[in-house]
């Protein structure tokens, strides 16, 4: 998505809200996959390992729905086209360490035959589920020796390990998605409440995760970013910085107006002949320029409605000019002021 015009925090907000909506749609799909993995996988926190259990697979295969779930899980782990690649494509994908059906002869090696059950290399996912079911039946047969069972156990162990490995990869993505949704919702909540958004460790992690997503071209006012490719993390960063900067400006403006009103109130209550320089903003005040500009405008607006404020308007302008001279002209020697 590209834009060439300047982007305000509101435009960044709209863009990020769209991104969050996309993530939530993806996460809805992830929730279903998460449920699939949980039918036979779990995380052992003490050992810090991800496991797929034979007992859980066996329970799945006890009914029609469970078999369908296990089939869908295998498709999620190995990919929907696992059995559909051409031989040439399979060889190319194998070089890239992408799973294809070429791995199956190695997995089922030693178990193929008709001795106890019909064990053969599956040609589709339905057959894959059937072969796993046959192997589990052999492993549960007490009349078969442990030595005999070992060669049948290998395909199941390999499949369990593949599922467990993909489960770990999936959980990393799944947890990232949950984290992104949670933190973006928090950011947007602070934005809507017009509160500062602190860039802490969580926000930095959020930026890092989002930077791996879609890129976006912006032209930022002040040329801070010009035709630069940004990840969504950078979009979030600039959104937060602009939002916080806008809040600071509004707060400063609020405080300035408060001070201007205070000066104005004091001056309008004071007779001209007893008015003192100290009642005006100090020339060394960090906000002197804004204070004088605001005060001159306020007195000027009031003067247009009330001619009695003519003297105050004149004095205020005089003090303003005095400030400008003091600010923009400096002594080059004791007798000359040079711009």
Overview of this protein structure:
By secondary structure, the chain is mainly α. 63% of the residues lie in helices and 7% in strands. It is built from eleven helices and six strands. The strands form three sheets. Strands 1-2 form a two-stranded antiparallel ribbon. The longest helix is centred in the middle third of the chain and has 47 residues, at 146-192. The two termini are 49 Å apart. Mean pLDDT is 85; it is low at 1-6, 214-229 and 332-339.
Number of strands: 6
Helical element count?
11
Rounded to the nearest angstrom, the distance between the terminal CA atoms is 49 Å
Helix content: 55-70%
Rg from C-alpha positions?
A: 36 Å
Strand content: 5-15%
Low-confidence stretches: 1-6, 214-229, 332-339
Shape descriptor reads: rod-shaped
Report the order of strands and helices: HEEHHHHHHHEEHHHEE
What's the arrangement of strands in the largest beta sheet?
Answer: 1-2
Task: Give the gist of this structure.
The protein is 63% helix and 7% strand.
Topology:
Layout: H1 9-38, E1 41-44, E2 49-52, H2 54-60, H3 64-78, H4 87-95, H5 104-107, H6 125-139, H7 146-192, H8 201-210, E3 215-219, E4 226-231, H9 232-269, H10 288-305, H11 310-328, E5 330-331, E6 337-338
Antiparallel strand pairs: 1-2, 3-4, 5-6
